[in-house]
Amino acid sequence: MKKVIDAAASLRERKKARTREAIIDAALNLFERNGYDNTTIEDIAAAAEVSPRTFFRYFESKLDLIMTRTDSHADDFGPLLADRPAGESLLDALREVLLSQLDAQLDDPLVLREFQVMLSTPSLRTMAREHFYEEEAGLVSGVAAHLGLDEDDLASHVIGAMIAGALWATVNRWVAEGAERDRIMPMLDEAFSILAKGLAQPAVPSSG
Amino acid sequence: MKKVIDAAASLRERKKARTREAIIDAALNLFERNGYDNTTIEDIAAAAEVSPRTFFRYFESKLDLIMTRTDSHADDFGPLLADRPAGESLLDALREVLLSQLDAQLDDPLVLREFQVMLSTPSLRTMAREHFYEEEAGLVSGVAAHLGLDEDDLASHVIGAMIAGALWATVNRWVAEGAERDRIMPMLDEAFSILAKGLAQPAVPSSG
DNA sequence: TACAATCTGTCAGTTGACTGTCATAAGTCA
DNA sequence: TGACTTATGACAGTCAACTGACAGATTGTA
Question: Is the CB of residue B49 inside 7 Å of nucleic acid strand D?
Answer without folding.
Answer: no
